[in-house]
Amino acid sequence: MSSTLETVERVKTKTIMIVDDHVSIVEMVTRFLEEMSDYKVVGSATDLTEAIRVGSETKPDIVILDLILENGTSGLRLIDELRESSPETKYLIYSGRLSISSVRLALASGALGIVDKGSSLRELSSGLENALANKPYYSSTAGEYLRQLVKHKHGSKPIAELSPRERSVLTMLAEGLSSKEIAFKLGLSMHTVVNHRSNLMRKTGLNRVAQLTRYAVELGLVNQNTKFTRP
What is the reported pTM? Predict the structure, then answer.
């Protein structure tokens, strides 16, 4: 009987990974979630490399993900990187750096919900519950940005429809990596990376790396305070 109850309990418990560049946020959210019997935090990370490793190993039911990680890296890259190794994992954005562009990009990347860090932890809990049930959830701030998107109130240049790999290449270009370095990091040929760069320029209408870098900042792919290594 006891074994049966333990099995039922394990089935009901949802596994969570927390990815945020602030250790204090990771610790706070972990303590909050561990008070609930329905959730188990199976890992955490502050940078993309560690997040990919932990996510691939633990294959959590859901990731609570910040938009910007250490060194200004986009947290949304994690969704692309874990797509093959953990296809069932869901993502809930938890960020204090929301904008119209970042909300749109988060949705395009596959996030099921977006909660602003100015919201209560109870709202974060609601976001988790909905995302795990495959229901979209947006806090008031994120919801307002979403309404502006729907009503076409955003007057800046439309965001190009980029593939996951193109977003990765764009981010790395903005971080100052050369095509050779990008090819090495992504395990691609130089020819493939050059093609991705050509597609980026064609889709965005931008022809210089500096322009693409500014575009990546506008999208929230990199932090505007990132110290780029190349002009």
Answer: 0.70
